[in-house]
């Protein structure tokens, strides 16, 4: 029996109307553009979202900066307004003013309302909040006892410091004029005595906790202005109350042990010179060689 002949199917043309959208026609060849367009769209959306987030943060920080400037009545402060929010600084990423900021604003408001005299200034810095009081508001010239006006100034400052738990470094400063008398042999003694006088008033009279305070004397070695005019020297004579941002490390540390000596020789630093030998004692004259003193008549 002869098999029936097999009919061959006609070949579909790539450009014919009967094409089913195979991978070799024009429609299939352009499908990669869909994936590429999706990728570009997702990248554009990603960068738009990132830009919008950064813009919101900058606007918020600008609002905080303007409010701080307004609170200081146009005065200058040591806050770096170019730092982004959340960076290590005064705010610490908080939504509102920190207690340290509120204390600084309270002091600035007291100065503006004449509750504190113009010789008081407040600053923000890396160490924390600094309340600087000119020496003429606290002490007579060359002395370390507080005047009655000084007590009024310190009472207002103590009311603000009472609401903070931070440690406070009270630092006395002088100008470059040397002092030398029986009470204060140097500017070091005067600056330390003034710092101690302020600490004693804040702890004994104002009722602040003594363990919060550190008394420091800086003498003339940390001036705010050049000591070349009487006005600048008066500004350099001051007492700074630094409300420290962090907890100071007051621990002694780890004891240091001396290295083991080599052999029986004790280690001697090269800067220490050996002691000079003692001079040999002069020989005493024998009794026979002594000449008796003449007897006066």
Describe this structure in words.
There is one protein chain. This protein is an alpha+beta fold. It has a domain at 98-244: OmpA-like domain (60s Ribosomal Protein L30, Chain: A, 2-Layer Sandwich). The protein contains six helices and five strands, in the order H-H-H-E-E-H-E-H-E-H-E. The protein has helices at residues 26-29, 32-71, 99-112, 148-161, 187-205, 230-236; strands at 120-124, 128-134, 168-173, 213-217, 238-244. It has a five-stranded mixed beta sheet. Helix 3 runs antiparallel to helix 4. The termini are far apart.
Summarize the structure.
With 297 residues, the protein is α+β, with helices and mostly antiparallel strands. It is 33% helix and 10% strand. The protein has a domain of 147 residues: OmpA-like domain (60s Ribosomal Protein L30, Chain: A), CATH 3.30.1330.
Please name the defining characteristics of this protein.
60s Ribosomal Protein L30, Chain: A; alpha+beta; 297 residues; 10% strand
Helix and strand topology:
Elements: H1 26-29, H2 32-71, H3 99-112, E1 120-124, E2 128-134, H4 148-161, E3 168-173, H5 187-205, E4 213-217, H6 230-236, E5 238-244
Parallel strand pairs: 3-4
Antiparallel strand pairs: 1-2, 2-5, 3-5
Helix pairs in contact: 3-4
């Amino acid at each position: 029996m002869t098999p029936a002949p097999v009919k061959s199917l006609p070949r579909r043309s790539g450009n014919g109307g009967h094409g089913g959208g195979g991978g070799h026609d024009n429609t299939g060849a352009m499908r990669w553009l869909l994936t590429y367009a999706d990728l570009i769209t997702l990248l554009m959306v990603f960068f738009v979202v990132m830009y919008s987030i950064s813009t919101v943060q900058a606007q918020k920080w600008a609002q905080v900066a303007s409010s701080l400037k307004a609170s200081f009545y146009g005065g200058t402060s040591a806050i770096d307004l170019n730092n982004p929010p959340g960076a290590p600084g005064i705010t610490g990423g908080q939504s509102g003013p920190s207690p340290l900021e509120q204390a600084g604003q309270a002091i600035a408001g007291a100065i503006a309302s004449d509750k504190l005299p113009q010789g008081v200034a407040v600053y923000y810095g890396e160490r924390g909040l600094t309340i600087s009081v000119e020496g003429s508001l606290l002490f007579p010239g060359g002395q370390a006892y507080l005047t009655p006006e000084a007590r009024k100034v310190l009472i207002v400052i103590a009311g603000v410091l009472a609401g903070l738990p931070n440690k406070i470094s009270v630092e006395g400063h002088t100008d470059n004029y040397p002092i030398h008398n029986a009470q204060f042999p140097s500017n070091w003694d005067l600056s330390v005595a003034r710092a101690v006088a302020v600490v004693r008033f804040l702890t004994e009279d104002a009722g602040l906790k003594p363990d919060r305070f550190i008394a420091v004397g800086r003498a003339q070695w940390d001036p705010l202005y050049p000591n070349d005019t009487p006005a600048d020297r008066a500004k350099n004579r001051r007492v700074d109350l630094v409300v420290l941002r962090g907890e100071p490390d007051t621990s002694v540390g780890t004891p240091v042990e001396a290295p083991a000596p080599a052999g029986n020789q004790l280690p001697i630093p090269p800067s220490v010179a050996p002691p000079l030998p003692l001079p040999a004692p002069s020989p005493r004259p024998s009794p026979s060689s002594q000449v008796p003193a003449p007897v006066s008549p």
